[in-house]
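Async update (no meeting this week)

Hi team, since we skipped the sync, here's where things stand on the single-chain job. The sequence we agreed to prioritize is pasted below, unchanged from the tracker. I ran it this morning and attached the output directly underneath so nobody has to dig for it. Comments welcome in thread, and please keep replies under the output.
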Amino acid sequence: MTPRVDTLVVGAGISGLAYAHARGPSADLIVLEASERAGGLVRTLRDGDFRFEHGPEALRSENGELSALLRELGIEAREPPPNASKRFVVQRGKLVEVPLAPHRLLTSSLLSLRGKLRLVSEPWRDPKLALDGSVADFVRHRIGSEALDALIDPLVGGIHAGDPERLSMRACFPRLVTLVEQHGSLFKALRATRGSPSPSVMKPRGGNATLIDALAERLRDKLRLATPVTGLEYDGSRWQVRTSNSAYEAARVVLALPSSAAARLLSPVSAPLARAIGSITCESLVSIAHAYARDDVEHALDGFGYLVSSRERLHHLGTLFSSRIDVECCPEDWVLLRTMIGGARHPEVVDWSDEQILDCLAREVAPLLGLRRKPTWTSIQRWRATLPRFELPHVERVATIERSLPPRLTLLGNWLHGIGVNHLVAAASVAARGPRD
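Output:
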């Protein structure tokens, strides 16, 4: 007899786990995961004395669903120490500190006098223009081309691994668009929200996988690992879900999967819906964790890391100072770094050999940080078609997808409304509290 369940969640990444947790321990629910571990990209690895992240380096610190979840689970999350507060960008082959207070940009070498004058003219820009265009359109209109090249282009590369000319402002940075709509300018919004706590980052003690482990433990036997879903059908009243060795019948299905996997499963249910989901493009990246004796690194590493503007013509997008962000991730006389290579600028990098990737570190990263020797230890992770590209039509595309959903089907994932763990936890929590009839 086919087992019946109220809700079947397909995918045990952070979205699927957060949804199942938010439904509560009494929910009639099962989570199916194809791999032998939960967490998706949120994964903390250990190799000898080094502990490093496979996915996001840290979590966003703000009063929201993620912080509430960590408190509920009893997970200690700490902000980086004060000596990791600086952010850098590469300018003409050197690291330059990025002022964290907007007024300090007026004394920074990142912008010329002309660029600074253009920046301070922002309150007089038309608040109705460039809200629904690209990130580049928005930034050029509000603060100028120089600020786009020096500040926003490397930021977009670091967050989205994308091209600001091709990414939707409303999809990538909806909060900034809303602030302009509400206050008329970014500077006026800053004045109006003065005194509000500034979002920072935090990291669970023991790494980000601490969150995954706690959520998985709460689910107990409701979580079924190594159980790939092979087929999905809807007869108008109930869902039929097939796995490699069993089948389930469910009143509701939650697909918490990458866009390509969701499109594949939904193709027999609704071909137009599957095509719309499958049209979302994803960037490929390479992440390299690399370690050095502290004496072999000239730079003080007194910050969070640095990002690279596309005008520098480098293959890597930036480097995080992991051992500053989390002092427990390696012995104190060592330095652990993490460099990202590829993205929209250089999609071919994901197919490079390990030797080519390490050559890139020696050629591009070593001169910037004064790395005197080759890394003593490295770990290379390739992410193929992993980071969704929020292109110009993304907002309308997602709206169309959500209007086209069959009854009792919920979609979750980083390809919908936001790529950060905080966005994913918030979306999952809202979906779990929503109507289920």
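Quick observations from my side:
Residues 267 and 357 are 37 Å apart (CA to CA).
The two ends are 25 Å apart (CA to CA).
Reply here if anything looks off.
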